[in-house]
Amino acid sequence: MGTDFSLKGKVALVTGAGTGLGQGVAIGLAQAGADVVLHELNQLPEDTRKTIGDLGRRTEMVLGDMSKKETPAKLVGFTVEKMGKIDIVVNNAGMIKRTPAVDFSDDDWDLVVEVNLNSVFRMCREAGRHMLKQGSGKIINIASLLAFQGGILVPAYAASKGGVAQVTKALANEWASKGVNVNAIAPGYMATNNTAALRADPVRSEQILTRIPANRWGTPEDLAGVAVFLASPASDYVNGHVLVVDGGWMGR
Predict the structure, then answer these.
(1) Domain map of the chain by residue range?
(2) pTM attached to this predicted model
(3) What residues in the chain have per-residue pLDDT under 50?
(4) Burial environment of residue 177 by CB neighbours within 10 A (0 to 12, 13 to 18, 19 or more)
(5) pLDDT given for residue 2 in this prediction
(6) 157 flagged as catalytic
(7) Cβ–Cβ contacts within 10 Å for residue 231, how many?
(8) For residue 27, what pLDDT is reported?
(9) What are phi and psi of 61, to 5 degrees?
(10) C-alpha–C-alpha distance, residues 126 and 174, integer Å
């Protein structure tokens, strides 16, 4: 990779880094040269740590429940304490509840919005304080195709991801002139735990695949290069953008 895409000397924090998209992104950042702090909910992401360690990069691991208001400050504080600084944040941790809207409980709504949207803002706020002081930083929020579309049976998820897109733009407006880039990635239909139910449904899976021009579900590796771009100097003039990675879904 050319110099503009190098993350050598940078420190990244990736939430939800144990499996799926977060794991793929964390490994991609390490391959580009970053040291990485890996977050997970209740089990330390040893597999991700080992892969990154084998690349010669430094790693630290931390647990935290993103439904708790104090967790974002804890994660950012841990990163700065262990690594000395924070240059890159990838807000990947999230959840989904599939229920018809008329049966969607207040508790489920509140939980999904808390994890997917409120914690993302708090992570941005806490990391932003450090990044603004140092005059540089890259924040990458993981949105979704459902930032643009409503989806089926996922009203809270769609609302939260739409909010992630708008928070991304709002913070970019404030911080672009101060050296802090805030952008988002909107993955399409990816082969992760969140889509296990869809992929197991032969009818719904076929409906989705026939709509994707690439004719396949996405993989965590499909996001890695995009994350490296948004974390690197190559994207210094990219602000408030929601970059769709969907195999062509939105083009139809």
Answers:
(1) 3-191+219-246
(2) 0.96
(3) none
(4) exposed
(5) 56
(6) yes
(7) 28
(8) 98
(9) -125, 150
(10) 15
Taking alpha carbons only, the member of 178, 173, 168 closest to residue 124 is 168
Which residue pairs from 175-179 have beta carbons closer than 8 angstroms and sit at least 24 positions apart in sequence? 175/128, 175/131, 175/132, 176/239, 176/240, 178/132, 178/135, 179/131, 179/132, 179/135, 179/136, 179/137
Q: Which of 121, 157, 175, 189 is catalytic?
A: 157
CATH superfamily of 3-191+219-246: NAD(P)-binding Rossmann-like Domain (3.40.50.720)
Locate 23 and state its tokens.
Answer: 């794991």
Judged on CB neighbours under 10 Å (0-12, 13-18, 19+), 187 is buried
DSSP symbols for the chain: --GGG--TT-EEEESS-SSHHHHHHHHHHHHTT-EEEEEESSS--HHHHHHHHHTT--EEEEE--TTSTTHHHHHHHHHHHHHS---EEEE---------GGG--HHHHHHHHIIIIIHHHHHHHHHHHHHHHHT-EEEEEE--GGGTS--SS-HHHHHHHHHHHHHHHHHHHHHGGGTEEEEEEEE-SBSSGGGHHHHH-HHHHHHHHHH-TT-S-B-HHHHHHHHHHHHSGGGTT--S-EEEESTTGGG-
- With CA atoms as reference, report the closest residue to 244 among 123, 109, 145: 145
Q: How far apart are CA 21 and CA 144, in angstroms?
A: 12
Residue that has been written with the tokens 């890996």 in this structure: 38
Token couple for 221? 């590796």
